[in-house]
């Protein structure tokens, strides 16, 4: 639908202006009149072929986390200053960069103008605003603390984003080194080794094992390259399909937790996210059972999500939060003790935040030491490949020298 820029006056004659998405200018005028405004001017935004192409492409692009954080934080500040929600959304709209997100904000405004609550409007965009988001906003609307709730949500998103960036930064060096090794190995095997093979065969001597291995790899690459690519593609597609099934996802999540170093890191980050989100929901006035029901779906790992489901069932039966944690074997004793103390003292939200901080500190320490931990493995890989290449190239040369001398 086209977008219209409008100017109007409220019942006191105060001029207002904004934007609205509608089928026609008459629909904009009708909606403004229904809101108690007197339309002054309504003009459709000009569109070009380039804009139409951008609109089409925007449907297939996702909203960046950084943009979402800025949007929520700005909205929190403006609402906290006493500005009405619709005007706050209009003010934030001008700061939104992506076409896709602009369209989403427009849709939210339109829903609110039509009588929907803010949380209901967000719920109609489930791919952008997950249940934990809409539930906290709904609780914030009821309690009259929407600005505070939005600030908590921005903090949660920012924490997740920071952790992801730290992991990317820590793994960037190992990934670059491994990629460089693989490329160098392929270049040597594909272009350098074949040049020596003709020379080696002229002397009719048996080639050393490392050279035969490299020549074998070269033969496979030259003769079965497309078959290898096709096989890898089929295998990747099959694995993707299997991992989309419930059993496949469960198997992968269990495997992820069992991988040395990375498994512990995944566990700590998932538990930190769970504790922090549950604390934020409890602070927003959401009951424990409802909070557990929502937060279990925000944890990416199914094994940990199943543990949270068991905790939820125990709490529904009237049990405490700490007891099922003790039997899960995922939460460390210190975290269980802190939650138990928080329950007894009636300060569960605050204690859950401290537990989340504990997990985050451990995860930060592991991320900082990730590269030093992986360096021995990289050195071993480098030593193996360099040794194989060196022996594959130089051993036959030594044999040729001996052959010539004899």
TrEMBL record:
Chain segments annotated as transmembrane: 173-193, 213-239, 251-271, 377-398
Keywords in alphabetical order: Cell inner membrane, Cell membrane, Membrane, Transmembrane, Transmembrane helix
List the lineage, top down.
Bacteria, Bacillati, Saganbacteria
Q: Kindly give the PANTHER family that the UniProt entry links to this protein.
A: GENERAL SECRETION PATHWAY PROTEIN (PTHR30012), TYPE II SECRETION SYSTEM PROTEIN F-RELATED (PTHR30012:SF0)
Q: Where in the cell is it found?
A: Cell inner membrane
Instruction: Give the record's membrane topology.
Output: Multi-pass membrane protein
**Key word Transmembrane present in the record?**
yes
Q: Does the keyword Isomerase apply?
A: no
Name of the protein: MSHA bioproteinis protein MshG
Boundaries of each Type II secretion system protein GspF domain copy?
71-194, 274-396
Identify one Pfam family in the record: T2SSF
This chain's source organism reads Candidatus Saganbacteria bacterium
State the GO CC annotations: plasma membrane
**Major site of localization recorded for this protein:** membrane
Biological processes per GO annotation: protein secretion by the type II secretion system
């Amino acid at each position: 639908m086209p977008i219209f820029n409008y100017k109007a006056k409220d019942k006191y004659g105060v001029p207002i202006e904004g934007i609205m998405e509608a089928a026609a200018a008459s629909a904009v005028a009708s909606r403004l009149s229904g809101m108690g405004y007197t339309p002054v001017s309504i003009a459709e935004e000009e569109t070009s072929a380039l804009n139409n192409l951008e609109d089409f492409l925007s449907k297939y692009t996702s909203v960046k986390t950084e943009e979402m954080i800025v949007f929520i934080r700005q909205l929190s500040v403006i609402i906290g200053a006493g500005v009405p929600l619709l005007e706050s959304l209009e003010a934030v709209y001008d700061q939104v960069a992506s076409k896709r997100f602009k369209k989403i904000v427009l849709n939210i405004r339109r829903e609110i103008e039509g009588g929907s609550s803010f949380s209901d409007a967000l719920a109609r965009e489930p791919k952008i605003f997950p249940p934990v988001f809409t539930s906290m906003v709904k609780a914030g609307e009821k309690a009259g603390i929407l600005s505070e709730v939005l600030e908590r949500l921005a903090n949660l998103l920012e924490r997740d984003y920071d952790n992801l960036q730290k992991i990317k930064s820590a793994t960037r060096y190992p990934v670059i080194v491994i990629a460089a090794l693989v490329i160098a190995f392929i270049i040597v095997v594909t272009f350098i080794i074949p040049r020596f093979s003709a020379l080696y065969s002229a002397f009719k001597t048996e080639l050393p094992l490392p050279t035969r291995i490299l020549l074998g790899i070269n033969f496979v690459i030259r003769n079965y390259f497309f078959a290898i690519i096709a096989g890898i593609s089929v295998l990747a597609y099959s694995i993707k399909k299997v991992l989309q099934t419930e059993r496949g996802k469960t198997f992968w999540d269990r495997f992820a937790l069992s991988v040395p170093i990375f498994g512990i890191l995944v566990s700590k980050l998932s538990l930190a996210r769970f504790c922090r989100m549950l604390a934020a929901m409890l602070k927003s006035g959401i009951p424990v059972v409802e909070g557990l029901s929502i937060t279990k779906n925000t944890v990416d790992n199914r094994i940990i999500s199943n543990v949270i489901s068991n905790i939820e069932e125990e709490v529904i039966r009237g049990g405490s939060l700490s007891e099922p944690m003790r039997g899960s074997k995922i939460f460390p004793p210190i975290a269980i003790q802190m939650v138990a103390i928080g329950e007894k003292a009636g300060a569960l939200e605050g204690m859950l935040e401290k537990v989340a901080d504990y997990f985050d500190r451990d995860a930060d320490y592991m991320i900082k030491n990730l590269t030093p931990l992986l360096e021995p493995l990289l050195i071993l890989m480098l030593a193996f490949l360099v040794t194989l290449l060196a022996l594959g190239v130089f051993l036959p040369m030594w044999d040729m020298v001996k052959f010539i001398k004899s």
